[in-house]
């Protein structure tokens, strides 16, 4: 059969695209998301300079304003009070208003306070303005939401302010502006938008079903495993895990726990998509992927049965829980069964079909990625296994009686600490998948530009 010339060039084109895309992986956040790595030498910012080089309300900076917060509004309860003794609060209103701010703003401010004391011993950070309840700023100011602060040093030496601005950048503020000769303006994303950018996922102890019927926790699932999923035609299949859209074994998160009448318990973050229907009479095609936060008691989810089929199960209770470790596997089918309940691989965007289409390029590049890097990963895994075997061989030569005595003293808490500590031994091999996948973050930023913001809000 005659082949066109472009058929021969297609693999080379894919290779070029993949080669360009691979370095972008480094743009994704690492374990310390929210705090930029510190350069070897700090360079003071210039007067009227701002970083990053966007307007404050741009998505690449602190994002749009979400509305003024007053003491009588429900959102006021989301603000926290900063009592850090290493920060001087001007509080000219005598209402402690300058101490109120969002949690993200508080965390950045506390980090900056430490950096200031390290940079200038004996000098403290000073806040001249934070949450504004008196209307002293222009409409839409982030001061009205507790997301912005104006800062100086307590010695008020203006020649330090350029370096103070750079320290604020390093402390993790999302937008820093050398606004005035007398202060630096800093602001952050809303706590809600930061949570959205982190995506949706499941705890590490949640389980999936492999092709042989074996159960496996998400923390031990690796790309290449085939897990139970549902195809676009409604058939139960075993779909390959291509990657993790979010993976962080050390992150504490708040999850929703959906318990069904059959004893199934699905635990996931509020922005993850789960297939829901209002009652039992709905067919499989009528189950719609929705944010988990929309689930209500008496809604139905789809669960897997022993015969490779699905059936509805009614939600009887919904609660919140906290757990360490967050995992969001991307399967080839775009779906999977977690603890027996059908869920989507996607989060943030309340449109499963659109999300599945958007991740098409990542699925297309996956075989090429495996071809080029599979052998390297295998070699590293072999080296790690060899080191582990050598380590345990060394242990076996120790006095067995002393080891047995020590094992009797291990309680539940010590065991959990050991389990948490052990993965740190292979941290260098896991670094590239430590948090949100670069492609997922890229898609989120593009979607925020071209799609209506309401599609992200549960």
TrEMBL record:
It holds the Pfam family Hint. GO terms for molecular function: calcium ion binding; patched binding; peptidase activity; transferase activity. GO terms for biological process: cell fate specification; cell-cell signaling; central nervous system development; gliogenesis; intein-mediated protein splicing; protein autoprocessing; regulation of gene expression; smoothened signaling pathway. Ca(2+) 2 binds at residues 93, 129, 132, 134. Residues 199-305, 307-351 form the Hint domain. Residues 1-26 form the signal peptide. Its main location: endoplasmic reticulum. Ca(2+) 1 binds at residues 92-93, 98, 128-129. GO terms for cellular component: endoplasmic reticulum membrane; extracellular space; Golgi membrane; plasma membrane. Zn(2+) binds at residues 143, 150, 185. It comes from the Eukaryota. It catalyses: glycyl-L-cysteinyl-[protein] + cholesterol + H(+) = [protein]-C-terminal glycyl cholesterol ester + N-terminal L-cysteinyl-[protein]. It is found in: Endoplasmic reticulum membrane. Keywords: Autocatalytic cleavage, Calcium, Cell membrane, Developmental protein, Endoplasmic reticulum, Golgi apparatus, Hydrolase, Lipoprotein, Membrane, Metal-binding, Palmitate, Protease, Signal, Transferase, Zinc. Multimer. PANTHER family: HEDGEHOG (PTHR11889), HEDGEHOG PROTEIN (PTHR11889:SF84). Belongs to the hedgehog family. This is Hedgehog protein. The lineage of its organism: Eukaryota, Metazoa, Chordata, Craniata, Vertebrata.
């Amino acid at each position: 059969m005659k082949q066109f010339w472009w058929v021969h060039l297609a693999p080379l084109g894919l290779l070029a695209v993949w080669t360009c895309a691979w370095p972008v992986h480094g743009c994704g956040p690492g374990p310390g998301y929210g705090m930029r790595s510190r350069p070897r030498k700090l360079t003071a910012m210039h007067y009227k300079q701002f970083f990053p080089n966007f307007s404050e309300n741009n998505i690449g900076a602190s994002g749009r304003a979400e509305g003024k917060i007053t003491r009588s509004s429900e959102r006021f309860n989301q603000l926290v009070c900063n009592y850090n003794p290493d920060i001087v609060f001007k509080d000219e209103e005598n209402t402690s208003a300058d101490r109120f701010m969002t949690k993200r703003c508080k965390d950045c401010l506390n980090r900056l306070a430490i950096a200031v004391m390290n940079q200038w011993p004996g000098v403290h950070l000073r806040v001249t303005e934070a949450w504004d309840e008196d209307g002293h700023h222009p409409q839409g100011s982030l001061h009205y939401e507790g997301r912005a602060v104006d800062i100086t040093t307590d010695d008020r030496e203006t020649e330090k302010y350029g370096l103070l601005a750079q320290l604020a950048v390093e402390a993790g503020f999302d937008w820093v502006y050398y606004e005035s000769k007398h202060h630096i303006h800093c602001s952050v994303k809303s706590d809600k938008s930061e949570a959205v950018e982190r995506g949706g996922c499941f705890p590490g102890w949640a389980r999936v079903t492999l092709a042989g019927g074996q159960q496996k926790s998400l923390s031990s699932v690796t790309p290449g495993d085939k897990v139970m999923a549902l195809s676009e035609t409604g058939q139960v299949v075993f779909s390959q895990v291509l990657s993790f859209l979010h993976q962080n074994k050390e992150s504490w998160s708040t999850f929703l726990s959906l318990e069904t009448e059959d004893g199934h318990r699905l635990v996931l973050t509020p922005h993850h998509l789960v297939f829901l229907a209002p009652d039992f009479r709905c067919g499989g095609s009528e189950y719609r992927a929705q944010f988990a936060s929309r689930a209500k008691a008496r809604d139905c989810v789809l669960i897997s049965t022993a015969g490779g089929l699905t059936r509805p199960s009614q939600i009887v209770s919904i609660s919140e829980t906290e757990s360490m470790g967050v995992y969001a596997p991307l399967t080839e089918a775009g779906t999977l069964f977690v603890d027996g309940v059908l869920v989507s691989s996607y989060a943030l965007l309340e449109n499963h079909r659109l999300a599945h289409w958007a991740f098409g390029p990542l699925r297309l590049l996956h075989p090429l990625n495996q071809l080029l890097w599979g052998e390297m990963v295998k070699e590293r895994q072999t080296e790690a296994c060899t080191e582990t075997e050598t380590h345990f061989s060394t242990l076996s030569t120790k006095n067995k009686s002393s080891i047995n005595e020590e094992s009797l003293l291990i309680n539940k808490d010590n065991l959990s600490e050991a389990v948490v500590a052990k993965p740190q031994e292979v941290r260098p091999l896991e670094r590239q998948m430590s948090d949100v996948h670069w492609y997922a973050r890229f898609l989120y930023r593009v979607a925020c530009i071209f799609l209506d913001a309401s599609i992200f809000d549960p």
